[in-house]
Write a structure and sequence with these properties.
The protein is mostly helical. It has helices at 10-13, 27-31, 33-40, 48-60, 67-73, 80-89, and strands spanning 64-66, 93-95, 106-109.
């Protein structure tokens, strides 16, 4: 059973003085995009919004989707397969072993 309940109003917690608690649209600028890229291991030529959409798609489907579904999720990328490849290199996702490389190959999130 909880012995203490914090009754601080949520707006009081969003002071904006620390980058890790900032919820403003400029969050990436405050922590630095290159620092974020280094922390997740994604190359400069891969848009972070594409990485996010792939991860969100996996999250919404039990951490496993077919390659074709992920490509559809980032179809505005110049090279969706390059985004997937960069995420595999960064060890964020992986192809499920034992399947042929085609649109139906399962892609899993690495935990």
């Amino acid at each position: 059973m909880a012995t203490f309940i914090d009754t601080t109003h949520a707006s009081a917690c969003k002071s904006g003085t620390r980058a890790d608690t900032d919820t403003s649209p400029n969050f990436l600028e405050s922590v630095g995009k290159s620092k974020l890229r280094r922390s997740i291991g994604v190359a400069e030529n891969v848009a972070l919004d594409h990485v996010y959409r792939v991860l969100r798609s996996l999250d919404e489907h039990g951490d496993r989707r077919e390659l074709g579904d992920l490509v559809d999720a980032i179809d505005d990328a110049a090279s969706p397969i390059r985004v997937i490849e960069a995420m595999i290199e960064a060890e964020l996702i992986m192809f499920t072993p034992g399947y042929a490389f085609d649109a139906a190959i399962p892609v899993e999130r690495v935990r």
